[in-house]
């Protein structure tokens, strides 16, 4: 079981770049003209205001209320870190907001309230409730959280849901249903010990008891030990409800012979001796975050028969409320629910448990880089399972409709499932699949520019993400100093640093280079300079000699220049069939643009080559290629000599009999918009194009950079293809993540 290491520096950099924090707000309506302004604001905005004043329900139609959730905290129980206060809880709350968006397309905003007074929180949330379709309370400590949630549920007509209580309870229940299924035990027979009598603990035990666990078989513990009948110290009414009739007074005593341990307390609360004392085929859910009560390694060191889950994403069996709150709210919002009731929660738990028992699609297993079959290491779906979005919310919505929580029932459940599927961002799964393939490849990646701190950080991330071995070209002392300056001093020992001047293979490399360049005006001295002093050439030579499996460069020099250098070692020029394809990712769409790197002014045959190479790249990305040859004219009009080659290129492909769709020439709107294409019913594309072959490199560069600068599109590439070995170039403006993504692309091509 591999555990990826995240350093403090990684975590801080992630939150700092590209802009502080984790999300921003974007307009969904045009805001460009005077007319837009008049509609969005005064006077046009008065009309929906009046409508809503007359019929409040129409707020769901004319405002973003119906898809907006507030994540509210006061920071008194931030994960398992304790009372860090409102401000310091903000990263977690922003995190919940981005999880809402990523997993269920729910818009959400974090609100941190600087008070520990329940009355103030109740008042604040009540006052803000009209804005939202739901309220997700988060990391508010017990027992205040019980009072706050109860009062708000009574007073608000939208779902108020304390995630740490019910989100956790739902996932814990789903996981336990399956864990007991595997260990062959019935919940009513199990001796259950729960450590942590706070928000999560009380809610988990309540739900398990509702599902059949017997009060007499359950023991709850807190900082004072076992909560037993008659205990006086550190009690409250919620704990009293679970006080056990038992002689056990400490956690170790309680755990002796237990079938199930549930931890929602703090790091390290459970020892290996306690694990040893549990019943055969015991179940341990160590859910404290970020560090569990006991790690899976510690458990497996002393017991092989135990089923272990944690709240973390880097171990199998992540029992974490991230599997619940996005989908519970999605289902609730879609029926304009008044509340999230117990039936909706139980429906969610059962749907999650059922999903884990179903066959796992290959792409999910691939994204995780391991087989996922229902069993000890897979008792609960993984957070990136794309089926969650269309399998869990319908179950929640159905339960809400059956129990009177729905203001607007869904009439067409099949249609609903389709709309849920459309909410998934396909680009995210593409990137994940690439990372999984790279992980399988375990490529030795040569990072040519070891003098650049971004490259070094990407190399460390490559190695620490278990993608393969990172080989850095540079001088040891310089690499060490730069890693230390980046706060990654401990990574010095992990990376393999290759100093060109010292390598034993330099002679071999120079001979190879001389044989290629002697008739191209280069003498021995030129070759020495290139091989020993130019890191791009040196890295390419390493790759050519099998001293690495793939290489990544281009972060410090213009790509055209780097291509010239690489051409000394590999045949990567326009006449060799090399092509650069750039992937542009935006609003859930992905479009490849080519050639962005090699061919400056391709003719129709080159354009056909570019289409073929880009089709291969598309397939590598998991896309079915649909090529459009784009220009300023569509199917011959307006007539122009300049567009002629775009008109001819499809005919070249026709003759070649390729196995993908293509069409042209056409303008970009015809390629990317079905309505525009409808004017040309003879066009052979069955759907929008996903590859745009453009007339020349300048138009390619302009299109990509325009999308990047004006629209904020994510750009991957140029992805170089048609070279004998996997070489990828990033651009001088690349971030650490961009460089890592390009390394991943290169690794995916390693055979
Ligand atoms: N995996 C997941 O999805 C989730 C995990 N959690 C985790 O659960 C933990 C608790 O969160 P939450 O319920 O919101 O917090 P609360 O502050 O509401 O409750 C914490 C509880 O833990 C008890 N506790 C603290 N230290 C110990 C200890 N050493 N031994 C026994 N009990 C202890 C406290 O006891 P006392 O009452 O005596 O003070 C209290 O009852 C956190 O680590 C959190 O990260 C929470 C939600 C979801
Ligand atoms: C996961 C979560 O909500 C917590 O640990 O508090
Ligand atoms: Mg929480």
Automatic annotation (TrEMBL):
Q: What broad class of enzyme is this?
A: oxidoreductase
Question: Which GO molecular function entries does the Swiss-Prot or TrEMBL record give?
Answer: acyltransferase activity; malate dehydrogenase (decarboxylating) (NADP+) activity; metal ion binding; NAD binding
Listed A to Z, the keywords are: Metal-binding, Multifunctional enzyme, NADP, Oxidoreductase
Identify which residues the record assigns to the active site. 96
For this entry, list what GO says about its biological process.
malate metabolic process
Q: Which cofactor does it need?
A: Mg(2+); Mn(2+)
Annotated Malic enzyme N-terminal domain residues? 20-153
SUPFAM superfamilies with a match to the protein in the record: Aminoacid dehydrogenase-like, N-terminal domain, Isocitrate/Isopropylmalate dehydrogenase-like, NAD(P)-binding Rossmann-fold domains
Q: Which PROSITE patterns match?
A: MALIC_ENZYMES
| Enzyme Commission numbers on file | 1.1.1.40
- Record's keyword annotation contains NADP: yes
Which protein family is named in the record? In the C-terminal section; belongs to the phosphate acetyltransferase and butyryltransferase family.
Which named protein is this? Answer: NADP-dependent malic enzyme
Q: What species does this protein belong to?
A: Pseudooceanicola marinus
